[in-house]
Design a protein that fits this description.
The protein is mostly helical. The protein has helices at 6-15, 19-42. The chain is elongated.
Length: 48
């Protein structure tokens, strides 16, 4: 089995069709949603 470089691994995770690729993209999506929710919610507590 050929060893992939870091760039090739990331490309496979972002653009691939494997189960690991799907899980990686769902993880990124969840992290983005949590970040956005944190930013929205934290704006209500600035002057508390």
């Amino acid at each position: 089995m050929k060893k992939l470089s870091f760039k090739q691994k990331l490309t496979e995770l972002y653009e691939g069709d494997s189960k690991n690729s799907h899980n990686f993209r769902y993880g990124i999506l969840i992290a983005d949603i949590i970040t956005i929710l944190f930013l929205i919610v934290s704006t209500f507590y600035i002057y508390s």
